[in-house]
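Budget justification aside, the reviewers requested a transparent look at the raw inputs and outputs of the sequence design task funded under Objective 1. We therefore reproduce one unedited record. The lines immediately below are the structure tokens for a 221-residue chain.
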């Protein structure tokens, strides 16, 4: 079942203006639209950084090219939030260790990949000697959220709460402190919950891996 559609920037802006008392202010509502958009965009950006949202976690699977060292990143991939890269070899997925040492670069090996490095493209070592299935797990970048018809990428209720709390404080409205407490509680729940950001490790349970040193010295020199 597909996820329900998020509200658009225009819909969220209109509700923000109503909650702030600008809903019937005519030209004033149009004039303050840019700052409403800024509150909403900043709120979504803040939420995006708090955790790896499952609805933004994606997978790309492709075949490596024989003797091909570099690979483009998947579409919409946040390069800083790649969770793992693995290669199917010997009937199982094998995690690639992140980082390619100078010692490894000194040996022009062509075999199944064991290491990768994030550069302008994904670099693999050893260079694939054949075609291998490569799996990249990553967090997608946020979608466009600048025009009225652009939909939010994250839960719009959470975006709205954070944005409204900031707007209430900006306009010094009497219930600003109460909204701020609700927004802080939301952020604390997200940080403490199961959706906390995954940190890429070399030894993820269920995925065999080798250290870069072991990989290098396992080959004839």
């Amino acid at each position: 079942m597909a996820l329900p559609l998020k509200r658009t920037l225009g819909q969220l802006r209109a509700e923000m203006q109503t909650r702030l008392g600008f809903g019937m202010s005519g030209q004033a509502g149009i004039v303050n639209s840019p700052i409403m958009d800024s509150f909403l965009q900043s709120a979504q950006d803040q939420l995006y950084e708090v955790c790896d949202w499952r609805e933004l976690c994606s997978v790309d699977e492709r075949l490596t090219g024989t003797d091909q060292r570099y690979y483009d990143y998947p579409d919409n991939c946040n390069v800083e939030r790649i969770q793992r890269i693995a290669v199917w070899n010997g009937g199982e997925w094998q995690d690639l260790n992140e980082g390619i040492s100078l010692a490894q670069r000194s040996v022009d090996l062509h075999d199944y990949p064991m290491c990768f490095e994030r550069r302008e493209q994904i670099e693999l070592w050893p260079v694939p000697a054949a075609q291998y299935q490569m799996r990249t797990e990553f967090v997608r970048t946020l979608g466009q959220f600048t025009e009225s018809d652009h939909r939010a990428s994250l839960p719009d209720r959470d975006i709205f709460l954070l944005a409204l709390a900031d707007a209430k404080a900006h306009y010094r409205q009497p219930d600003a402190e109460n909204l701020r407490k609700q927004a802080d509680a939301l952020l604390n729940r997200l940080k403490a919950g199961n959706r906390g950001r995954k940190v890429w490790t070399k030894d993820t349970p269920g995925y065999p891996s080798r250290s870069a040193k072991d990989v290098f010295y396992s080959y004839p020199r």
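The chain has a mean pLDDT of 87. The first helix runs from residue 9 to 19. Computational costs for records of this kind are itemized in the attached budget.
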